[in-house]
């Protein structure tokens, strides 16, 4: 029964995509806090051959002509935040513009979360000088207004800051060992205000919210149990959105929430 539901849902999903104007891929942005399980979520959908997965270009940030910009930014943000975020914007824009041979593209994060969450936090915390922030903001506004950056759906992996903080410590990524819980809490609030409360910045696409607090050792199995629900909800969110034909308009509709099925 579940397999039949998944097949029907996937068929509806792809029929909608293939009847959309032009031959652009249906682009899903997978957003969430540090340690929210974005890579795990994307890896689960490797089983669908009509989906291209683009993971966050962390290795590029770790090695730009031998320089680890991620490490430099965490160790001395006052000096390196501007440089790091400028490079993040470049690499994320390249991901947005990358052509695919499949009708669906799943991206880990986006140029929008880079601006609305991470650059915004750096501005509010004083890490960025107002002049540096203005430069980054001007670049973002130019890209948003002049460069086609498509977003058809946002999947928000909603997590509790204390849970992802423990995940970060367990995965022991060397650059992240100095990240305090307060930083995770602040990023969580920015994601919530952007994607849930809609009190900070425009939302470029309808939002599907998934409870991602489960232990990462269990969450892949939960995604497998819930994949038909995820796809069906994704179809409903997009098809019911009044903005689906005008992606540059801010999305006003409320997010739709689902939780993995416990069988």
Automatic annotation (TrEMBL):
GO terms for MF: ATP binding; deoxynucleoside kinase activity
SUPFAM superfamilies cross-referenced by the UniProt entry: P-loop containing nucleoside triphosphate hydrolases (SSF52540)
Residues engaged in binding ATP: 32-40, 167-171
Pfam families per UniProt: dNK
Deoxynucleoside kinase domain location: 29-230
Keywords: ATP-binding, Nucleotide-binding
Active-site annotation: 108
GO cellular component: mitochondrion
InterPro entries associated with the record: DCK/DGK, Deoxyribonucleoside_kinase, DNK_dom, P-loop_NTPase
Family: Belongs to the DCK/DGK family.
Name this polypeptide is given: Deoxynucleoside kinase domain-containing protein
Species per Swiss-Prot/TrEMBL record: Leptidea sinapis
């Amino acid at each position: 029964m579940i397999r039949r539901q998944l097949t029907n849902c996937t068929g509806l999903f792809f029929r909608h995509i293939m009847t959309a104007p032009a031959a652009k891929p249906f682009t899903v942005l997978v957003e969430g806090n540090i340690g929210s399980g974005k890579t795990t979520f994307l890896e689960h959908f490797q089983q669908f051959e009509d989906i291209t997965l683009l993971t966050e270009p962390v290795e590029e940030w770790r090695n730009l002509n031998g320089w680890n910009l991620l490490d430099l930014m965490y160790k001395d943000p006052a000096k390196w935040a501007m440089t790091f975020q400028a490079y993040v914007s470049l690499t994320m824009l390249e991901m947005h513009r990358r052509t695919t041979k499949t009708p669906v593209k799943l991206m880990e994060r986006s140029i929008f979360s880079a601006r609305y969450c991470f650059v915004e936090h750096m501005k509010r915390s004083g890490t960025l000088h107002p002049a540096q922030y203005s430069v980054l903001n001007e670049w973002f506004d130019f890209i948003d207004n002049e460069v086609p950056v498509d977003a058809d759906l946002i999947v928000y992996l909603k997590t509790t800051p204390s849970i992802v903080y423990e995940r970060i410590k367990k995965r022991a990524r060397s650059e992240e060992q100095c990240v305090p819980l307060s930083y995770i809490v602040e990023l969580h609030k920015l994601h919530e205000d952007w994607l849930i409360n809609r009190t900070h910045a425009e939302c470029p696409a309808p939002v599907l919210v998934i409870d991602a607090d489960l232990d990462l050792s269990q969450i892949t199995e939960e995604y497998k149990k819930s994949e038909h629900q995820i796809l069906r909800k994704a179809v409903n969110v997009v098809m019911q959105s009044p903005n689906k034909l005008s992606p540059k308009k801010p999305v006003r509709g409320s997010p739709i929430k689902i939780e993995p099925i416990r069988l």
